[in-house]
Amino acid sequence: GAERPQVVSHVQQALSYTVFDCKWVPRSARLLCLGSAARGTGVLQLYELHGARLELLREIEKPKPIKCGTFGATSLQQRYLATGDFDGNLNIWNLEAPEIPVYSVKGHKEIINSIDGVGGLGIGEGAPEIVTGSRDGTVKVWDPRQNDTPVASMEPVQGESKRDCWTVAFGNAYNQEERVVCAGYDNGDIKLFDLKTMSLRWETNIKNGVCSVEFDRKDINMNKLVATSLEGKFHVFDMRTQHPTKGFASVSEKAQKSTIWQVRHLPQNRDIFMTSGGSGSLHLWKYEYPAQRSKKDSEGSEMGVAGSLSLLQNVTLSTQPISSLDWSPDKKGLCVCGSFDQTVRVLIVTKLNKI
Amino acid sequence: MGDESVPYFLGEGTTKTYQIPISHLDYKFIEKCTDVKHLEKILRVLRSGEEGCYPELTLVCEKRIEHLDPRSRALRKDKPAATASDFTAEEWQAINSELMSWLTEMNEDDKKSQLLRTDTLNERQDNLPPIRCSSSCLPTNQNKKLQNKQRSKKNIPRDYSEWDKFDVEKECSKIDENCEESNSKARFFSRPSLPIIEKKIDTTGMTKREKIFIATREKEKGNEAFATGDYVEAVTYYTRSISVIPTAAVYNNKAQAEIKLQDWYSALEDCEKVLDMEPGNIKALMRRATVHSHLQNYQTAIEDLNKVLSVEPENSMAKKNLLEIKEKLKSLKPVSEPQGKGKKILIQEIEDSESGEGRGENKEELERRGGYKTSASAAAARAAAAEPAMGNAHRKSHGKGGGRARDRDTHKHKDSAESGLKKGASEKKSEKHLSDNEGEVNGYLRSDEKSESAEAEISKPHREGSQSAGGGSSTSLPPTAAKLKSEGNEFFKSGQFGEAVLKYSEAIEYVTGLGEQSPDDLSVLYSNRAACYLKEGNCSDCIQDCNRALELQPFSLKPLLRRAMANESMERYRQAYIDYKTVLQIDSSIQAANDSANRITKTLIDQDGPSWREKLPPIPVVPVAAQLYRWDGGGLTSENKPSTIDINREEELQMNCEEATEKFKRLKNEGNDFVKMGEYEEAANKYSECMKLNTEECTVYTNRALCYLKLYKYEEAKRDCDHVLQIEDSNIKAFYRRALAYKGLQNYQASADDFNKVLLIDPNVLEAQRELEEVTQLLHLDSSAGAGSHQTHGKKITIQEVTEADEQEERQFATSEDAETHHVPAEEAVPKPVPRRSSEKLRVSEPPNAYDFGQIVNALNANKDKAACADLLTVTDPKTLPVLLSNKLEGEILLIFIQSLEHYIAGKDPGLAYQHLFYLSKAERFKVVLALLSKNEKEELQQLFDLLSESQSDQYSLEDLESLKKVYEL
């Protein structure tokens, strides 16, 4: 109907390199594109949105292709960008003076696939921290104030085959003590690490490689987690109620026939999220809670009840996978996505207020 | 979409993919097909074009699927992004201009923040929480394991198994021992389920823009929590947002969340803040009106709504609310029958008031509990404002008193009912073993629910200086816990036991977390949770909770009874027997305990033979202090019992004056507690004992008068009031009660005189006005129609009050509907499962939920009112039967259903009867109940089936009937 949100492709910008990640700079109309140039170097481009076009403000070249970036652990004033590159380096850049990183560490032996930050931007209580997940199988948590070593590290047992960690995300940071890291691996494993108790809180396997995980909000008592997979399915876990044996209740949905590369929740409404697919499509979803979010099982243990999903809108923008997606934290409905056809698009999603 | 297969024709009659017969690719087939899966396959075949291209047919197929399942995945199509052509010109304009204005705003802001940047940065850095595992939060020596891994060895990676091995508790306790700072942390581990969220956000060094950003974000979090129904969380996030930037909108939202939590006073405060900021804020006015109307400040509510209407004359919500409130206000004044609504009036009087707080919340709990519309006079409003911290415990009594029909004929039965247990009901069922048992348990629980909810009302008892009968003074529950508890009660009442358990658990955790000593409250919480578990059939948890409750409050009745029931249903008869016996030691008048004990005795004899007693664990000896009722339950008052007097004399001899006062106080409190429990006989006994110590204390007499009123001993009530009035010639309560006593004695003239005196002393006592009106009518009737029954209309009003040591009291006046059946309109009020010999026919409306249904069924069952039961079944959709019956199906219920169906429905509407039988068989416990039917009952069932097979209906075939008969094991 007319009241459904529409996805408008506001600006399309062709790039001369492969874009792996794109991010809005908080409290601005600027956005960053990170990627890999044809000659094997890393590219970092800063654009500003001017009406219906993107104006390139800055282009920075770095020795190694940049895979991922986050502003999650920086203050709203500094707005330093943390990036992970193909060589396993974690760097933090002051975009005003990007020549030398303000923080740099060779965090992993292989490519850093995914990065997330918390404790910055007014999102998440507690210390600013960055988590990186790498092909070397480890997940490491960093505090930008501590050089050289991570503040926590999660690695498979010696001898156990190392799984490629594809995605990491922070969550549960609703007070100074609580914090969890969720990591997804190429074999379908999802692991939830509790940083407060330093324990593996929960793990599950969704059978196919986990491309992207994200909590609906990082800074509340864990509410929902979305995990997308290689074969086009995604799962939404209700994280409020953990059953001693069954874990978290979940609902799954098949969005498309191809890989779902990314999931991003609308910053202004945790129950709406977008998935980006291998076939160049975007799906906008809404999670609907069940009447009761938990119930008792036969033994009297509390178990969660999953809700349902409704598709609000879907569009196909490209023939190539859309590998990155980011909602503007400042303007509801404003969104940027980068795809493998070397294009970055600024999208406007309308009528999100009416859902 | 689409299949990869190349279109070609096989000619084999089926499609290549899915092997669908070619004939199915047809308009007619598609339009008739209801199998969405199949249609989706057809659609895929059609879309793939492998059988040829049929755009029309494809469209029809899509429409058909959309009709059957609008959310079908097959309907999802690839779509390009929307463009200007998808919007109207205005919309498009709006989208673009909105973006442009945001861009301008952002650019301006950027420039500003660049100016502000440098000076605030360092300040912010200092405020950051410490680095994880750095010495400031965890001392290095205490945290060797972690430190070794993380620091000294320069990050040797830890594997998952190591993560698991990390003993949090141990680490914490270590820290606990040495480091005071981490106390809070360690404590936090012990109750991880209660999220602790800071109520304030540190905003030092933030720019205005940042603050706005943060405040907005917190507000959004609040909104989301609100949308999910997590109102407590929502309030927290709104509070956080306000701590950054207070805005009217957030206060307004917070007020709404608080209204949802029935936290009227906070909501009122927040509405007022909004109105301070934005005097004409419509939403705030509307919300404040709601709050005022719940606080019984009807006049103020009306004012607010009028303000709304003066701004928005068409605001339909405001109109509706205004009308409702005006009606409420009207119904408060003269006699006019409360129209179709369960109405409960609460009046609070103050004598010698001390001031205090915590009042309003109780009142609101009260409303919530019963769900009845509480209304009150200006006096009540006044009271609400100035009400001191009083024995809120008083209120406890209303839940029971509310629904008592004032039928003299049955008052004996009621006495037993009032003792908290459906004695009458159980007596009737004495022939049938098992169903009897269950009926009783339910009966007990149902009555218990009331006292349960009542119990919660005293969740914040301010029993200053007074001792409760249970012994030990109780501290008041902290508001959070009280709220949780009342929410729990609410859930319990509506049958959502799982939710209730959650709430109680939270409350328990909260209370235990505080570490304060409030065994009373904690015990009640455990006991309440036990009730939920029992309801859920979770006997082991129930027992556990009862144990905890009893540890905190030994010889507390309810947990004992609940444990007994749980034990019994787990077939642990010996433990159950012990518990019942203990209960009987405390209060021998609890009929259910008596019956159960007897029943179990039989079982135990069967099981263990004649020497069964030897196998019993020892029965604990209940200390005299805990014995509530040591005499025969059937006795009237103990006034004349020599034993009492003896005891008193002895005691009097031993006691010095101080002790006497102490004892007086105690006895009085015990009496008050009995009133709260609805055990008026016992209460009267206690008061009588009091009088032996002090004949001057009027409250004891007025209180005893109340008990006598409850017990329909009008003569005695009158005598007590007379006594009081000799001492205090203007005691309003005495006048009031004497008026009621006269009314009971059918001396309407004297009654009217007394009511007039009440009104002379305080013209604001609305229920006196109403009573007067009624009595005047009765007087009129009496004189005109002669003898005529005084029960002309269904309005029976009871007044209950207890006066506690601090001399404050409240009165509750309730119309005949009980709190529990408030959903049922007044004219259709269903009596409690108290046997009623009244010939008046019950009228039944469709019950909205399982709870009400259960109430009605029990009432019908108690009356054996098959006709009314037939009415009930007629208005009830058979499909809903399993839901409505929930797990409450019992032999008796099945039987009365069958009888009603047989005698009243099968003849008229065999289809309906069949439907009912069919869905009845789907109800929980059906098999069990069926197995327990007696021969006669089976015959009854057979007759019904015979009747159905004779009469024809298009609703069922004979085969259907046969198969259903099998289900009924005939």
UniProtKB/TrEMBL annotation, chain A:
The keyword ATP-binding does not apply. Key assembly factor specifically required for the stability of axonemal dynein heavy chains in cytoplasm. It comes from Vidua macroura (Pin-tailed whydah). GO terms for biological process: apoptotic process. Keywords: Apoptosis, Cytoplasm, Repeat, WD repeat. It is found in: Dynein axonemal particle. It comes from the Eukaryota. SMART domains: WD40. Its main location: other. WD repeats lie at residues 130-152. InterPro entries: WD40/YVTN_repeat-like_dom_sf (IPR015943), WD40_PAC1 (IPR020472), WD40_repeat_dom_sf (IPR036322), WD40_rpt (IPR001680). SUPFAM superfamilies: WD40 repeat-like (SSF50978). One of its GO terms (cellular component) is dynein axonemal particle. This is Dynein axonemal assembly factor 10.
